[in-house]
Amino acid sequence: MNAVITGASKGIGKAIAEKLAQEGFNVAICARHADTLASAKAAIQAKNPAVTVHAELVDMGDKAQVLAFAAKIKTVFSSVDILVNNAGIFIPGAIHQEEDGLLEKLMAVNVYSAYHLTRELLPLMIPHRNGHIFNMCSTASHKAYPNGGSYSITKYALLGFSKNLREELQAHNIRVTAVSPGPTLTASWEGFEAAPDRMMPPEDIASVIWSAWSMAKQTVIEEILLRPMLGDI
User: How do the domains of the chain map onto residue ranges?
Assistant: First the structure.
């Protein structure tokens, strides 16, 4: 079994990769920074020395690099069972105050990367009539927040992408799930003053993804919405 997880050097992506490796999946991961990517690869491999862990340095905001990553995956895996479109960046701000170009930057990483990678990897799913695509959305995909700005716009778009994929791929027996976590204890929240136990651990998101994958093949969880027990921060 083979899985591809983007933005997997830390946080939610790393937790998902560790969980899938532990369950016996070969995993291909990518990230922007060589040092964190190398340490993540080692940590994921330690979960299960028997699986293959393939790591690539990729800027998911660059279409050419996304396509090159997909091409590399095709040389490593003959099929893809799970694709987790997790790569994303969070930059808060009000729409009327954001610096010019921020929307384009966030769209490239948060939406276009998932679009291009999914299109390139579907040939490793459709002929096998098997696969599960998880798109890492957000509570900001469902509710606008003050200071959400372009980030929230991109997360609404990613949820729309996921809904369209679900309709298109059901005839090919490929499941699509939109996962929308609220505040999770990851690097995105560094510098934010909140108690760690006020946020969800990334391992919980990984557990939810594993549960969705483990359902009977005729069952698909279309959307998952998660928030901290005390609500949003």
Answer: 2-226
Distance, in Å, from the CA atom of 137 to the CA atom of 155, rounded to the nearest integer, reads 6
Determine which one of 9, 14, 112, 138 is catalytic.
138
Range from 64-68, 141-145, 177-181 carrying the lowest mean pLDDT:
141-145
Q: Write out pLDDT tens, residues 23-46.
A: 999 999 999 999 999 999 999 999
Phi, psi of 149 (to 5 degrees): 45, -135
Which of 151, 152, 156, 180 is labelled catalytic?
Answer: 151
Residue 69 amino acid letter = F
Q: Which among 10, 14, 19, 155 is annotated as catalytic?
A: 155
Question: pTM for the whole thing?
Answer: 0.93
Query: Is beta strand 223-226 parallel, antiparallel or unpaired with respect to 26-31?
Result: unpaired
Q: Tokens 């798109």 sit at which residue?
A: 135
Could you tell me the sign of the dihedral formed by the alpha carbons of 35, 41, 44, 48, in that order?
Answer: negative
Residues written for the chain: 233
Structural class in CATH, domain 2-226: alpha beta
Q: Confirm whether 145 is a catalytic residue.
A: no
- Work out the angle between the directed axes of helices 202-213 and 11-22 (0-180°, nearest 10): 50
Closest to 84 measured CA to CA, from 173, 183, 210, 182: 210
**β-sheet bridge partners, residue 73:** none
Please confirm, yes or no, whether 115 is among the known catalytic residues: no
138 is catalytic: yes
